[in-house]
Amino acid sequence: AVACIHMLLMHTHRPFNKCQYYIGRYENETFYPEINGQLSRLGSMLSGPETLIDDKGRRLFWGWISDARDGEKYDWHGIMTLPWHLKPTSDNRLRIEPVLELQSLRYDQSQVGDLLLEADEEITVDGLASDCMELKLTIEPHSAQRFGLKLCCSTHGEEETVITYDAKKQEFVVDFENASDDKDLLYRCGQSVCAFSGQDLASPAGSSHEV
Predict the structure, then answer these.
(1) Quick one: the chain helix, strand, coil %, rounded to 5?
(2) Can you tell me the distance from the alpha carbon of 94 to that of 140, in angstroms, rounded to the nearest whole number?
(3) pLDDT tens figures, 15-73
């Protein structure tokens, strides 16, 4: 039989508590995994993965995410993710995109012009205050080795979620250390980094206070 590329998607329970996948060959009724990856990221626990193929032939994914509060105290707390479009790349890896239909939910759009930052400089972008927003930005790093964004910041900066790009490692790193002044929160699982390559970085980012 001719080998085909398949993906095995699962949620593994304790001690791992994460949503992960394997990509590999399926032949002679046997699956041979070749690539392993995680869908879980720090900030919330992703579980209960579901997929379907819609009438456009797209493989759509959604799952359940809980926040960082104590599960024993707050019981079953959480929400469903937005739908993702899972696509294979030319080298048989996984590409994840938000479904195009989410664009119909956009409102109160605003645009910020070019910003130039010097080394060790921070700029506050006024007018971008919301409990839920989508950011679409293009970054030209030039010679900068590390740079980033601060999201969900409190008035005096006690709370902030920092997203940093490391040019040498070609990774985005999300830092939740000061995301909340509630010290009972526990970020139990998931990766804090996301690989990204390219000369200019163009990427959408979503921010929500729901979890």
Answers:
(1) 5, 45, 50
(2) 25
(3) 667 889 999 999 889 999 999 998 887 666 788 899 999 999 999 999 988 777 666 67
CATH H-level superfamily of 122-208: Exo-inulinase; domain 1 (2.60.120.560)
Scan for tokens 């119909």, then name that residue: 104
Report in angstroms the alpha-carbon separations of 145 from 128, 171, 190. Answer: 26, 11, 25
- Give the helix/strand (H/E) hosting 36: strand 30-38
What backbone torsions phi and psi does residue 3 show, to the nearest 5 degrees? -70, 135
The structure's pTM equals 0.76
Cα separation of 7 and 23, whole Å? Answer: 4
pLDDT in tens, 100-116: 999 898 888 888 888 88
Amino acid at 75: D
Query: Strands 59-66 and 79-80, how do they pair?
Result: antiparallel
Domain residue extents for the chain: 4-102, 122-208
Instruction: Say if residues 50 and 30 touch (Cβ distance below 8 Å).
Output: no
The pair of structure tokens assigned to 49 is 């993965």
